[in-house]
Specification:
- This is Glycine/betaine ABC transporter substrate-binding protein.
- Pfam families: SBP_bac_11 (PF13531).
- It comes from Sulfurifustis variabilis.
- By secondary structure, the protein is an alpha/beta fold.
- It folds into two domains: about 130 residues, Periplasmic binding protein-like II (D-Maltodextrin-Binding Protein, domain 2); about 110 residues, D-Maltodextrin-Binding Protein, domain 2 (3-Layer(aba) Sandwich), CATH 3.40.190.
- About 30% of the residues lie in helices and about 20% in strands.
- The protein contains eight helices and 14 strands.
- Strand 2, helix 1 and strand 3 form a beta-alpha-beta unit.
- Helix 1 runs antiparallel to helix 8.
- The model has no long low-confidence stretch (mean pLDDT about 95).
Amino acid sequence: MLDWPEERAAEEDTAPRWYQPGSNLCLDFHGDPAASLAVYSDGNHHMALRACLAAFRRRHPAAGEPFYATTPPGVLLALLDAGRLRLGNLVIAARPHVFISPPGVLDRAVAKGAMAGHMPFMRSRGNVLLVVKGNPKGIRRLTDLDRPGVRLFLSNPEREAASYEVYRDTLAGLARQAGIRLALLADAGRVVYGERIHHREAPEAVADGRADAALVYYHLALRYTRIFPERFDLVSLDGAPERASADNVVTRLHAGLVGDGGAHGRALLDFLLGEEAAGIYAHHGLARAE
């Protein structure tokens, strides 16, 4: 099991810490659910969001440490609808003030009356392959995925449809571009699907040898190679991120207030749409959405 770093927006915390990896370790709910500022966000850019929230807190100390959730969007929509979510034996009830997700997800929140609207925020910079450090299988291009025995990790087609569709369309587009047919996609034994949270499951699958490569957003692979430099390497596809073609599909994120945004939501949204946040996201491999 990978030893994930803590990802709260707090600069430091002297409170006692108690956890058992694999039992009561919770990676995608951060901070105190009773905080005066709560943010829901899809999880793949959690590292950049955490840095932004920490910077926002330094500018607005009265807001305190925010609570933020970084799960697949469907979970957050369900939590928004029900007002509570059971996490094992724990119940979380925290209504968000800011919601970040692909525009289609936020459209559903608007349709339910939870949000008045949303605006462009950030975008990804294409997709790459994550492999074990040293790349022992020699996977350097798309055609290498079709070698016998090579196994590829992809996010779950049903529970994480947004990311799965980006990855599926990228594979299809790059295969057309290369004039090949990716046979492994028709071989259920060679595709390892995640269950619910691919931004945690993809590196775990590669690290423990269940998959030889994982197709992930460039910014996710960048994150993994930074926090686990001895475990992973990144393999570019189609020149991503600098020279990727339109076949290497990008995902776009929007952001907006839930209700009136509470006491601090408007200030946070303004911060997220500003230059400091853009610089933080650029450092983590994303770009400002047009």
